[in-house]
Amino acid sequence: MKKKLTEDTIKQNLKDAGCDCDTIDCIIECCEKGDIKKRKKVISQHRKKLLEQVHEGQRQIDCLDYFSYQIEDDEKGKK
Questions:
Q1: Global pTM value
Q2: In angstroms, rounded to a whole number, what is the distance separating the alpha carbons of residues 73 and 46?
């Protein structure tokens, strides 16, 4: 038997996913109105934002790794 999501469960899940209050309220409203299309759109937009943050974090890590490599290479050249 499928478990029905409560509003509190939905809110907690969205909060855990990093959604702000406006996004959470919008999604809850979509659920109440049965507006599946808008709900999916809002969730997709938030997911895209999170993925962009992941990519930015990866780019920053790559920069640090390259910088570390340059320092190590420079130190080897001085020996």
A1: 0.80
A2: 41
CA distance 3 to 48: 28
In angstroms, rounded to a whole number, what is the distance separating the alpha carbons of residues 60 and 5? 38
- Please give the Cα distance from 60 to 21 (Å, whole number): 28
Work out the angle at residue 27's Cα, subtended by the Cα atoms of residues 35 and 37, and round it to the nearest 5 degrees: 30
State the residue for tokens 């420079």.
Answer: 74
pLDDT for residue 45? 98
35-79: pLDDT as tens digits: 999 999 999 999 999 999 999 999 999 999 999 999 998 888 776
* Concatenated DSSP letters of the chain: -PPPPPHHHHHHHHHHTT--HHHHHHHHHHHHHT-HHHHHHHHHHHHHHHHHHHHHHHHHHHHHHHHHHHHHHHHHHH-
